[in-house]
Amino acid sequence: xxxxxxxxxxxxxxxxxxxxxxxxxxxxxxxxxxxxxxxxxxxxxxxxxxxxxxxxxxxxxxxxxxxxxxxxxxxxxxxxxxxxxxxxxxxxxxxxxxxxxxxxxxxxxxxxxxxxxxxxxxxxxxxxxxx
Length: 131
Prior knowledge:
Blueprint: H1 8-23, E1 36-41, E2 48-55, E3 59-64, E4 73-82, E5 88-102, E6 112-127
Antiparallel strand pairs: 1-2, 1-4, 2-3, 3-6, 4-5, 5-6
């Protein structure tokens, strides 16, 4: 929460919790949010780059240049604009588990990875004009 206003991710998580309580555990409502994402296997030092396609309260689907095996533990990092005017930039780090791998449909496409979010934290927030 930034200055008493729920953050974008908290809003997504809150919406998902409502869906979870009403509909049961299968899947959270997905939001088509395309964000740059950095990801790596837990314990690794090298980051790989990708882009999210959708995010829910339970996980994230993203495409990147590096495949990981199903059941691999992954650390992901992405930045979001927060607040009603998008005046705050926050980095979010997630610990997740890869639950699905999608091979690319064409040679020039990137593979996809679906990850179940196990925990997340806000690493930093910068208030002021975001450029």
